[in-house]
Amino acid sequence: MAAFDENGTTDPPLADSYRKLLRRDELGGALARESLAVLERDLPMIDLKRLTSGDARERDVCADAMASAASEWGFFQVINHGVGRELLEEMRREQAMLFHQPFDTKEKAGLLNGSYRWGNATATSLRQLSWSEAFHVPLASISEEDAKLSSLRGMMQEVADAMSRVAETVAGTLAKNLGQAGSTFPAAAGCDGTTCFLRLNRYPACPFAPDTFGMMPHTDSDFLTVLCQDQVGGLEIMKDSHWVAVKPHADALLVNVGDLFQAWSNNIYKSVEHKVLANSKAERFSIAYFMCPSHDSLIGTCGGPSPYRPFTFEEYRRKVQDDVRRTGKKIGLPNFLKRSTIS
How would DSSP label each residue in 292-311? Predict the structure, then answer.
């Protein structure tokens, strides 16, 4: 849970940021109130073991179910994924010890190559402020020497390697479904062990819940995300213009399509908006693996005319950052439509 120091401020200082915005934001605590009525749903469940079945029909049925989920939901769960429960539980313990260090240590000590971030210090309204903290670490730097965090780095590398195998299996299967060479897709798209990211997330218990975003609504700016979440819950996704609460499953990982895969698939696979709501009683942890290409990779197409003009991953990231600074929110793929109406 969030700790308070002798001055009454929280560690990290999330509550202080919210109090400042509450005093001048007309929305008050109503920004997430519409989420209280959402239904909790089980996402489509994909058994990855079926992809290695000796029965070709069973393999095809599994691949078709995955493609259908990526098209209709943009999110799905996978089981028999090969990422051991004991590994994830040990990672969770290491993660908790990391986040429970003093805020000044996390912010100023350069831990994990200075990848720490919290909330949104530049937020100008409650809709832009997230009640969370994270370490967003490039895979290329996980193994760098750091005597203080050697155990954590080793654990992160194991988790990243295991999650990367899941991401490659899923991405290859989805690419093959569109007539591409699935076995070469991640590499052909510019993704490898040096271009992807591992993100450790913590959502402290929040005195403003349930009217607080743990993470504001967004889509992911990558090809594919593999997520391990705990049983606290709070993740919601957009389905048929309504928010749906995702029911946690102890043995499953979540997979979601990112913006780049939607563009590459000519909008067949969907990158859907999602958010996290804060919890008033329990802190929440999650680990996310982001399958990203190199910055200069050109985002291609699975074939046929694309609705999007050519763009690189760096160009996409830069445009997202510019839009957030200018408007307070991400615009994303609509910026790159050949017939874009975005000014």
Answer: ---TT-B---SSS--SB---
Of the candidates 88, 87, 42, 119, the residue with the CA atom closest to the CA atom of residue 276: 119
Topology of the domain covering 25-306: Jelly Rolls (2.60.120)
Domain residue ranges in the chain: 25-306
Across the chain, the runs of DSSP E, i.e. the strands, are 3-4, 10-11, 39-41, 45-47, 75-79, 116-118, 133-138, 197-203, 213-218, 224-229, 235-239, 242-246, 253-257, 274-277, 284-291
pLDDT by residue, tens only, the chain of 343 residues: 555 454 556 778 888 888 878 776 654 444 544 445 578 888 999 999 999 999 999 999 999 999 999 999 999 999 999 999 999 999 999 999 999 999 999 998 888 989 999 988 777 777 788 999 999 999 998 877 666 788 899 999 999 999 999 999 999 999 999 988 766 777 778 888 789 999 999 999 998 777 789 999 999 999 999 999 999 999 999 999 999 999 999 999 999 999 999 999 999 999 999 999 999 999 999 999 999 999 999 998 998 899 999 999 999 999 999 998 888 889 999 999 998 666 5
CB 173 within 8 A of CB 78: no
Q: Quick one: which of 149, 137, 169 has its CA closest to 49? A: 169
Integer angstrom CA distances of residue 12 from 110, 121, 149, 246: 16, 11, 20, 27
CB 320 within 8 A of CB 221: yes
Of the candidates 262, 294, 230, 276, the one whose C-alpha atom is nearest the C-alpha of residue 92 is 230
